[in-house]
Amino acid sequence: ASQKLKLGLRKPYIQHVTLKLVTLTPMELGYLAGLIDGEGTVSIRRLRSRRFLKPHFRIANTSRVLMHWLMGKFPDKSAYVSPQQKPGRTLMYDFRVEGLSYLPLYRDLLPLLIIKNQQMALVIEWCEMRLGQSKTDQVTARQSAIISEIRAMNIKPYARLRAERSAASGSIT
To answer: Tell me: the pLDDT tens digits for 12-50?
Structure first.
């Protein structure tokens, strides 16, 4: 194994990852796309180890019924719900689907998304590039640019406006 590593002979991710096929009806797929557009986020995030990046989409909602429905459609461990409670707020649920293995689902959702279409297209591009790399390969300049583009698109409009105002006021001399 160490000789293979020294020679640069590494298996690409595609040989380690089993692509997951999620069976949703066209209506369910459209509903999921609407949830992502309306109450979701599409991004690439670092895991706690700070070493690995994972593409994902998440849906935040207060409906327990919706979360049970989503978990029924995604029984895998890489899709999960985490409840979050803030003082004085209603209990919120955060549903996430993450990983390279959901690339077929990301592709199926792309034509149905309106608001998050650009983010999903970039996530798909990032996944396709990453699947051709080995686990130990560094993130390329293009992959870093994709992550930056997605993060810029995911900034909330009021935060973006505040940042633009502060940048504009700082540049005036």
So the answer is: 777 777 888 888 999 999 999 999 999 999 999 887 666
Rounded Cα gap, residues 13 and 25, in angstroms: 29
- Tokens (6 digits) for 85: 């409670």
- Residue whose C-alpha is closest to residue 54's, from 10, 16, 109, 99: 99
CA distance 158 to 82: 26
Let me know if 60 is exposed, middle or buried by CB neighbors in 10 A (0-12, 13-18, 19+). Answer: middle
Question: In one letter, which amino acid is 94?
Answer: D
Report yes or no: 92 and 85 within 8 Å, Cβ to Cβ. yes
Rounded CA gap, 31 and 54, in Å? 24
Q: Specify the amino acid at residue 130.
A: R
**Two tokens at 100?**
């390279």
User: How do 79-84 and 53-61 pair as beta strands?
Assistant: unpaired
Q: How far is 93 from 64, CA to CA, in rounded Å? A: 8
Identify the residue whose tokens are 């002979």. Answer: 9
Instruction: Determine the 3-state secondary structure of 102 from DSSP.
Output: helix
